[in-house]
Amino acid sequence: MSVLLIGYGNAGRGDDGLGPAFAERLSRGGPEGCRIDIDYQLTVDHALQVADAEKVVFVDAMIGGSSPYRF
After folding, report:
1. CB atoms within 10 A of CB 52
2. Residue-wise pLDDT tens digits, 14-49
3. What is the pairing mode between strands 34-39 and 55-59?
């Protein structure tokens, strides 16, 4: 199975850096076969990567969530 994880956000804005930090940590020992991309924001260029993957996980920070994370 082809899995793509995209962690995005701006670490310079404090907690908005959650996505890139999470993706960076996974890239050092994450699941086999999981492609990882780190960027400041989603762009149209990501559409090609998403189209090639069977499953995609987007990781970003969120303010005011009812739980620590949502999957």
Report:
1. 11
2. 678 899 999 999 999 878 889 999 999 999 999 999
3. unpaired
